[in-house]
Amino acid sequence: MQLPLTSVSKGWPDPIQQELGRLNVPDGRLVIPASILEKGLRQGRVEFPWRLIRAWIRPAVATYASPHDAMPLALPLAVVAPAFLQQRKPVSRARRELAPDESIPNLFDEHGRPVGVASGPQGAGPAVTASAGGAPQSPAGAAGTSSGAQPVDTNFYSPLDLADAAQTPPTGAGVGGTTEWVRRATTPAEVVNRAVSLPGVAGALVALPDGLSVAGQVPPQYNSETLAAFLPQIYAKVSQCTQELRMGALNNLSFTVGQVPWKIFRVNNLFFAAFGRAGEPLPTAQLAALAAELDRKPKTV
Question: Could you tell me where the Low complexity compositional bias lies (predicted)?
Fold first, then answer.
C-alpha cells in the first residue's frame, strides 16, 4: 500500500514535521504492508510509532536514532481508507471452466503428500525449501531421522532440524552446551544474541505477526524494522501456497537471495528469522534449537 507522505503527515506534531523537513523527502511516500494497514482499519485507528514510519518512507532515508522514535503517529482515515478500498477492489468472479486432463498424473495422495518420489542422496538443495506438515520436503530430508524413531511434529521446525540439533550441540560464543541454556525460558533478545554469535549467521531478528520488531541485530546496510515488517508477509504467501496444494501447514521456510541464505521459523505468535553470508551455509540445526527456546514456557512452582 503506497500513500503520499504529504497527505498523511499534515496533522503530525511539530517535532516530527521538523524531522521530516530535515529528511528532505517532499515527494516521499509511505509503503505499508496491506495486512498491517487492514488491521488498523478494522480497529478504527491507524497508528504507528515514528521509528516504524521512517522505515516505510520511500525513497529510503538514513537510519538514525530519534528522541521521538516511540511517538505514535496517526494516519488520517479519510486518506487511508479510500486508498485501501481502491487497491482492494474485488475482481470479477467470472472464470473459465477448465476440464482436467486425465493424462496428467496425480502428484499427491489423498492426504496431500507427494507420491512416487524416491529419496535421493544428499546434495545441493533448491533455492527455496519449505517444510510443511511436519516433514521436510527437500531431497536431503530423507536421511535426517532414523527409520525406527517417530519424529516429533511441531509448528516451527522440521524433524530433520530437530534430529540434527540432537546430534550437533550448539557452538559459538554465548551459546554454550545444551544442558544449561535449554532448561530455562529465553527472551527474544537473548535468542537474537545467540543466533548472531553462531558461525555463518550475519543477522537475526524476531517479529510479531503485525510486522513490529521485537528484537534484532542486522548489519548496517539493512533496516531491522523494515525486515520485521515483511517477515510475516513472506511467510504467509508461501504458507498459502502449501495449503492450496494440500501439502499441510508450513513449519519453516528456507530460501536464498543471491548467495545469501535465509531461514524463517514461525513460533506460535512470533517470527524468528536469520540470514547468513554469501556462499556460507547457515547452522540450521542450532537455529532450530533457538527457535525451540522461544516456544518454552517458564516453569512455575
Answer: 129-150
| Closest of 286, 241, 247 to residue 265, by C-alpha | 286
How far is 86 from 143, CA to CA, in rounded Å?
50
Q: Chain centroid to CA 125: how far?
A: 21
Q: How far apart are CA 6 and CA 68, in angstroms?
A: 19
pLDDT at 172: 40
**pLDDT score of 273:** 93
Phi, psi for 100 (deg, rounded to 5): -65, 145
Q: Which residues contact 255 (CB under 8 A, 6 or more apart)?
A: 127, 128, 129, 261, 262
Helix-helix angle 224-244:34-43, to 10 degrees: 90
Do residues 34 and 84 lie in contact, with contact meaning Cβ atoms separated by under 8 Å? yes
Residue with cell 504529504: 6
CA 101 and chain centroid, separation? 37
Give per-residue pLDDT as tens, 96-122.
Answer: 566 666 666 666 666 666 665 444 444
* Burial class of residue 21 (count of CB atoms within 10 Å of its CB; 0-12, 13-18, 19+): exposed
Per-residue pLDDT of 217-242, as tens digits, reads 999 888 888 888 888 888 888 888 88
- Taken in order of first residue, the domains within the chain and their CATH numbers are 2-87 (no CATH), 128-295 (3.30.450.30)
DSSP summary character for residue 200: T
- What pTM did the predictor assign? 0.45
CB-based contact 284:169 (threshold 8 Å): no
Mean pLDDT by 10 residues, the chain (301 residues): 89 92 89 84 86 90 89 90 76 57 65 54 46 44 40 45 46 40 67 92 91 89 87 87 82 88 89 90 90 68 43
